[in-house]
Amino acid sequence: MVTSDYITPVMYIDPSGEAWWHWAAAVGVVAILAGLTIISCGGFAAAYGTIMLAGNGIALAGLSKTAVVLAFATVGSALGLTGSAMYAGSMSSNSDEFADYGLIGLISTSVGGALGAYTGYIITQNNKYYFPNSPDDFNPKNLDRYDYNNGNVIKWQEPGGGKAVFEYNTHDTPHYHITPDGVNRMINPFTNDTHMYQGDSIPFDFWQYFK
């Protein structure tokens, strides 16, 4: 069936807007997972910090396994949705063409959420690496310990005085730092500063120093 003598297929006309429901469903998946994370964490602020930490591969000590899994699922689904939306935008010249990628967006969002949840589950099962109460119990492999300022600052550096990967500092409340490049300290999204406290889990990317 056509709409004119110019052979314009009716299938390209979407007056009801139904072609967008896949995108709406994908957004709904992310929103539901985020809502469940808020509930499992006991509030928005805690959930926000947990999700930000999950985005960095960190599972905060003391959280329930459910909260960790949901936070990672939220991050995974959001990444899937964002990635598919960017792909659809780059491949489309108008809104109707963008809508046609909705099924891909929904699948990417769902798969991302599932992979995120699985990652969170694995971390809750295998994460045995936490910052200890005493720096004397902190022994990352292949790094040398250097004490500074009468032991008030301790750095674990690459052999031969190379870059410092971890740091312990007694200023204010005793805490740790992670310096991936040897200079800039990693932000702890849960506290919005660079402090990693005793009992906090060590990010996945740094497990290599403890296995």
Blueprint (SSEs and pairs):
Layout: H1 21-41, H2 44-55, H3 65-91, H4 95-99, H5 102-126, E1 144-148, E2 153-157, E3 164-169, E4 175-178
Antiparallel strand pairs: 1-2, 2-3, 3-4
Keywords for this entry:
211 residues; alpha+beta; 2 domains; four-stranded antiparallel beta sheet; 5 helices
Overview of the structural elements:
By secondary structure, this protein is an alpha+beta fold. It has two domains: 10-126, no CATH class; 135-200, no CATH class. Helices cover 43% and strands 9% of the residues. It has helices at 21-41, 44-55, 65-91, 95-99, 102-126; strands at 144-148, 153-157, 164-169, 175-178. Strands 1-2-3-4 form a four-stranded antiparallel β-sheet, with no helix packed on it. Helix 1 crosses helix 2, helix 1 (21-41) packs antiparallel against helix 3 (65-91) and helix 1 runs parallel beside helix 5.
Q: How would you concisely characterize the structure shown here?
A:
It contains 5 helices and 4 strands; from the N terminus they run H-H-H-H-H-E-E-E-E. It has 211 residues and is an alpha+beta fold. The N and C termini lie far apart (65 Å).
How do the strands line up in the largest sheet?
1-2-3-4
Percentage of residues assigned to helices: 40-55%
The count of β-strands is 4
Biggest sheet overview = 4 strands, antiparallel
From the helix content, strand content and strand pairing, which structural class follows?
A: alpha+beta
Amino-to-carboxy terminus distance? 65 Å
Low-confidence residue ranges: 4-16
